[in-house]
Amino acid sequence: MTSRLLPIVFVFVLVLDWEVEEGLRSTGCAPPEEHCHCYKRTIPDLHYNLGNKHAALYVDLLRGQTEIDPVLGAEHQRLMDRIHKKLRYTNVYERKVAWGQTGLDPKRNRSHRFYAERICSHVHRTVVNSIDKVIKTPAKHGTFEKMRREAIRAQIHEEVRQHKQHSLHLANNFTLRQAFLDDVKKAVGQSSSGRILLLGPPGWGKSTAMAAIAQKASFWLSGCRTATTLVIFIGFSGESRNVRLVLQSLCFQLAETYRPETQLSEGFPQLVNEFHSLLMLADADRPVLILLDGLDELSDEHGSQLSWVTTPLPENVYLILSATSGSRCTESLLSGQSTVLLIPPLSTSDIAEALDSKLHRDRRRLQQDQWQLLVQACEACPSPLYLDTAYSESSHWTSYTDQASLNLPGTLQGLYANMLSRLERDTGRQLVRRAVMLLSISRHGATEEEILHLLSNNGKVLQEVSPAHTSPAHFKLPYILWARLKHALGPHLSEVRTDGTWVYRWTHAELRRVCLQRYFRNEESRMAVHADFADYYRETSPSAHVFQPSLWVLDEGEGGERGKRYCFNLRKLRGLPFHLVHSGQIVPLLSECLFHYDFLLHKAWGLSVLEIEEDLKKAVLPEKDMVDVEVLSGALELSRPVLLQDPCQLASQLIGRLGKMVTEDRPVALGDPLKYQYLHALLDQCSHSTLPVLLPSSTCLLPPGGLQHALLAGPLCSVTALGGSQTGPTAVTCAADGSIHLWDPEQRRIIRGLDPVGGFVADSLALGLNDTMLILRMGQTLQVREVESGRVVFSDAGSVDVPIVTTASDGQFLVVFYDGTHKVKVFDLAASCSLLHSMTVSLNSEAIHKNSSIVLSSNSIKDYVLFAYRSGSEAGLLRAKEGTVVKVLSARHEAASIQAVDMTPDYLLLFCRYPYRHDSQIIHIELFGTDSLQYERSVLGCSQDHISQVTVNHEGTHAVAFCSTLGTGVTALVTWNLETEDHKHITQFSGPFVKGLCFDMRLCLGVCSGERYLRLWDLTSRITDQTLTYNIHKSRSDGTRELVPMGRQPRYAVCLSVRPGTLFVWNLGRKRYRCRPVRAQHGLYGSSDAVLVHDLKLYILTNRSLASRTRAPPCFQTLLVFDLIRRSYVKRQSGLAVIPCPTHEYRILENGATLLGLSETRDHLILWDLDSGTIKHRLDLQRPATPTTPTWMPWDIQTESANNTHEAKPEKEASCAIDQYLISGDEQVVVCSYFTHHLNAFNITSREHLHTLEDANSLLNLHTAALTHSGSHLVLTRYNQADHSPSITLWELQSGTVDEELRHEPGVCCVALTDDASRVVFGVTGSNTLKVWEPVSGNVKSICGYEGLRIEASSAVYLTEGGAKVLLLSGHLSLWDVEKGSFLSSLSLDSAVTCVKPLGERYSRVLLGLSHSPALVTVWDNTGSTSTTHWGSRADDLFEESSSSEEEGHS
Hints:
Elements: H1 2-23, E1 38-42, H2 70-86, E2 92-96, H3 110-135, H4 144-172, H5 178-190, E3 195-200, H6 206-216, E4 228-233, H7 243-258, H8 268-279, E5 288-293, H9 307-310, E6 317-324, H10 330-335, E7 339-342, H11 348-362, H12 368-380, H13 384-394, H14 412-427, H15 429-441, H16 448-456, H17 459-465, H18 479-489, E8 493-498, E9 501-506, H19 509-519, H20 523-538, E10 551-555, E11 565-568, H21 570-582, H22 586-594, H23 597-606, H24 609-618, H25 627-645, H26 650-663, H27 679-686, E12 694-696, E13 710-712, E14 719-724, E15 731-735, E16 740-744, E17 749-754, E18 764-768, E19 773-778, E20 781-786, E21 792-796, E22 803-808, E23 813-818, E24 823-828, E25 834-840, E26 854-856, E27 864-869, E28 874-879, E29 884-890, E30 897-903, E31 907-916, E32 920-929, E33 935-940, E34 947-952, E35 958-964, E36 970-977, E37 983-990, E38 993-1000, E39 1003-1008, E40 1014-1017, E41 1040-1045, E42 1052-1057, E43 1063-1067, E44 1079-1081, E45 1090-1094, E46 1097-1104, E47 1116-1123, E48 1128-1138, E49 1147-1149, E50 1154-1158, E51 1165-1169, E52 1175-1179, H28 1194-1203, ...
């Protein structure tokens, strides 16, 4: 007995000694204390309880005795001594615990439970801290967008590295069929298309051959040493199976080689075009060779589209592809012009040589019969994979194995079946069956944890492994069983990196196909395994200890919420939707993934919003329309550019697009279902986001449902010009780097590229002479190039006027008008661009504008060119060949203002704007016959058409206009049917529109400023939709000009529309009225009236008098007061003499009794009594009357100061006009600026002049200034002309002195101040940084914002929550944490914001008035210190909006 035990004890001690030595070994320069910790438990009274039956669990006892084993006890003490010697006492934690009746029992003994909890807590902290020290990376500085791009770049770098390593590994194993490499080399040199396709059956060594080619092919390209070789083994990792990610990796590698600064897209269609644009950069000195192995292994995303590899290749580009013969992709690959090479089978000599080599390597021998059997089997199936598998099976033979029992099937499938049968016999049928099913059905492989967990959850496996176990539900599969199976599978199982972790997958796809056929006899069995995977990720598996979050927060840095480091569970984010779809669980897919905010956020953040869109396409229920899916897909498509840059905006983008749609979704009758079953829950989750986000109360972005555009990418930098052909659907663009691209809009791709010439970047383009000539304009320079060669055939840089070009006679004649003049030139492109005519043309009326004064027709009939002066009432018809104006076309009325002209085969079109009704305008299209040149009829538009550009389709049936209203940022695409006179507003899109084209109704192109994409609309699906019809009776939808919160009724705000006479009253506290006003009024005032809102009353200053001969100033003579609650006028006051001012310079004070305004000469303020109509008081300096002293305007003082900056002129500055004034929040203090060297502060209540703030060296103004709520302090910017230094100055108005000054701060354009003047926040022009200044301590810190932020003069900053947070409006709205010094969140808007009103400093809430919509939007910070705003109770409702069925909402 002893002799049998001693070796076991001895081996155990050796292993323990080795583990201790390894664990306590110093790593690098770090001592063991950096990574080793020892926990020592001492039970003092254990020696008195050795007779207890539980004592043997805590100490080594002699068998059958109550004494400690002296040998093992000595070894234990020796081990502890060694640990104490290696570790410092700080890393040895000794804890004492008393003995219990059953040893240590935390369930029954409170002291033991306390001991266990204390130990567990300490161990947890120690382990977490140790791991953090190891994995913690240096803090990354930069914006979120930059960090995300760097993360994507790092992922692609790692993927590329793995493929290169795999290529080297495979190339080292390529020892056979060397002659085949010579065939490939010959094909590369002789191929006219540059595309080589390798085909072969499964297992014939395509990947190994591709790896060998990758190592040698760069030397085949005429000996070029600088050739770039890119290799991707599709299917090697999970990411390489997705065609979009494959393209992204290729574009990334090409961009790093040829243009490192390029910003690439992420969408598949855009990547296709960018891939071909990058290929065009290859030249003879730097050719590129791309190898794509296993194209048949691509997954189903994007339909495994392969058109991007069959497109003709540019010169110096070589593409080598491989695929399995007879696969689904082979047919499409063969459709391209490719040189096809068939992988040859192994020859008899190759087989014998390979087998001999393997036997020699493994130091094995086979019996002669066994050798013949192996060779014959390999000759029957002469593929490398069969040879390797057969040899692997022969390794289980012994010299005494019965020959009759040896069997090697003649097919690879049969050989795999034999191998699986052997594994089932050796390891267990159920274990092998279950493990193989998991590996085969998994998404690109399974992790070891997934395999062990799902094996342990299978009852048949547990019954086979442990048939006598009494509680199989809590039994885990021993790891040794999986390790044995893994070892038995050998080279057939590979461990690769996928989804940020390591997974096991089949090495060869053919084995997976065999396993699927063998173990999945029906669809139900497949769905069951997919359901098991889904349950594992959903945490609904029987084992309760499984924890599968989609996100782990690893660390919190100094940057607050944005400083945290996140680790995303990519296995769950990708695997859960995949397995739910394949298990037929569409409803859980919708509720737990696609309409679960946290899941969507983590997937958009950790992966991409594009992967969410791919999942949405798979959410299909038979015989049921998925309305929610369609709406969500449309919203994500509209928000895609924003979410690709900042996925954290998901909540604000969804609420901003879907808020109104969901709020208005109510059952028609009791018991009726909601239209949207899932969107309600999704938006509710968005409003409770754990991230700091800015949440809008309702729709403030363009909603889904309109016609979406497709993005055509290709240019590697922003597009500066767009032109088209008059003969066919061919477009041409110029990029900011000067490169020219010709497009085929039907195929949605670039068909030709021209290199830049001399830094010429065109701002206008046109094609001529049957698309063989290219006309470019850059400023005043005109250039003509040949499309085929790119040669410049004509250039004119001598003009001082901007040339405006068009073509005639099918592009033969180039007609050039010069803006601002009457000069016209005609060139013959067919005669080397020779000058035909140089003339002067004029119409009966002169041009009104000096810039952009001429509008031309883009189409031409015969040699006619139609032109007009913009805003004029006449158009001329020029005959280019003769150089004469043959006809002048007059609009039907003198009030016409021509906006655009064009022509069709039947009509000459004049787009005229006419006055319409009150303060409105309408478009008339006046049609003249091309034969008679006489007026025929007019086609009406609507009052919402603000034409930026007009284009006509080639058939001449429709006119298409791009209507971009100034200052809104939103462009509408509208159409007119010239025959039926049907007028439609097809769609809206955001972005600064530049140029548009329409070849036919399927191909409508547009480009926006600063974008690298073309936008393509297919109008055919909407052109017959009568719901889009607009006419003169369609109600207008105007933006908001001004919004006024009602201070005494905080529930309400009033919005004044851009359209004069219209206003809306909004209830801010009622959920029911988030999307619609409680009251709307129209026609209350005109455009010449001054309108003020106070306490839900409208004060209208009207009846404006004109200047008379008695030199009496013009004034408002009548005041009308309209009560918005009663809907009636409550007062009419005549006999007033209120001096006209801009509306924003009036203020209603003292509860509507007083009006504050400026005097006639603007040199002082006036307080009018609105009850009597008389002047109450004049706020002015007390100075003697000097009637001879003229009033100095700001520009006079500025000129005077420039001439003599050191000489003060108080006698002149005292009579200057008021440039601007600020009034405090409590309406007690007003500060006036005169753009002079002084400011004046007045107290409105006491009517006194407080102080004059003077600075002899600076011109003081209030353009960039802020006043505290009580008027105690003023902060402003100034420029000291003496020492030429800009600064920010804090003035104390009670004393009239400078309190603090921050010097050397140039470019300040917006500033905000806390109520106690303890903190000043300001922005600098052209930067993306806010600065925080604390005047008391003098501290200044900078907070970096997001990458696209550019603070401008129009930006505004607001302090909230007592100065703890900042809201910045600079194109988009953003939230900043001043205390932590971090940028928190932003809300990207589709349109411009016209007015902003913060709801007090206590709350992170702001009211937004939009430029394109009358809606009032409340935006709040979901993490603000006050989660709700006190709007009052329902009893405070004043407009009869109460409803018993409605619940109160805080926003």
